[in-house]
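Please produce the structure of this protein holding zinc ion.
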Amino acid sequence: MNKRQLFNRAQYIYKNVPVYYNLAKELGIDPDKAKEFEDFPIVNKNYMLKWGSSCISPEHTVEYLQGKLISCRTSGSTGQYLEILWDETDYKKSLIELWMKRVKYYNIYPHNRLTYFFTENGQDGLFISGEHELGVCKNLLTDKGIETVYDKILQWNPEWMLLQPSSAAILCSYVNSHHVRKPEALRYIEFSGELLADEVRRMTEDTFGCAVADQYGANEVGSIAYECPYGNMHVMQSNVHVEIADENGNLIETCGQDGRIILTSLTNRAMPFVRYDIGDRGCIYKNTCQCGSNKPVIKLASGRANDYIEFSEEERAGSYLFVRILDKVNALTQGAVRQYYIEQRDYDFFCIKICRDDETEPEYIQEKFLECIDEPRLKNAEYQFEFTDELFQVQGNGKYIYFKNRIRK
Ligand SMILES: [Zn+2]
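Below is the modeled complex.
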């Protein structure tokens, strides 16, 4: 999509989709008078969350009411949960470029046997068996469950696996410590969902002896970037337009300078995303790569502005542990948590603030939260809950804070 088409699309969306129409009105922008794509503002997750079903395009409202749109939820890695809707055809379209590359680089087709991992949702049980895929519930990735999981994977004998780096690390450590064989047909592993550390990549390559590649995606827009065999994450330009902006929303034009990642979906028509702040940070390079692609390369910056959890003076853990708990709670409660914020007040004391939907009782969310904790030190800690019906602002220097360590502050 060229710059003019991009502008036309944005202008159309600003004139027709209520959430954008209202944003323009609030900011005193007349979509008809906009001249450049960049004249449209950057919109964040909190704003979309506030407007709920007004984020759906009028053309898709009937399908929405008939329950015909695909619905998925974002991960809570920004502290906010947004229900994302897709028209099925658009959704398939958003994956075309990714599939073409999987075929080109690794000879992986949709009919090749796949193993993937999913978050417990209270409906699907522990395994989902499809014609071409085996889904495994992440709850089984524990000392107790891993043997069953791995036997099942060996039986299925996948040709490829889709893994979050944290799941890959658990599988690798099981295979290495128990000296079990690898799935014979396995020839490709794709990472997504979390930032991929070098050591996890190396461990996975060494353990499974197959090709690996990293993919950066988000439920809002689908696939954003995919790693070529030369290690560069090329932007999926047929699916998404990527910009980098500073804290004030000004575009960063300098290559390699970190900023907020701003996305415009080129395929999601049911719930359009125009200049949307996804909550990740990174930079863009524009150079030709040995793979022959001249598409911009995206590099994600590690970590958001969240602190570490501290269990003692020496023991720390990533606050991502809480994202996993809340993701699970939300899967089990069909999205009862809209936003959350956690403060650590002592090594074993946490305050949890949750904005809930009005259909679910606070006690039920609280119960599920406590059930979903699997880290022993978090299990033994004490929790204080606060529930609200209103979305809230978190005061912090970073924009997307969901966890703050206040032991000494
Ligand atoms: Zn490349």
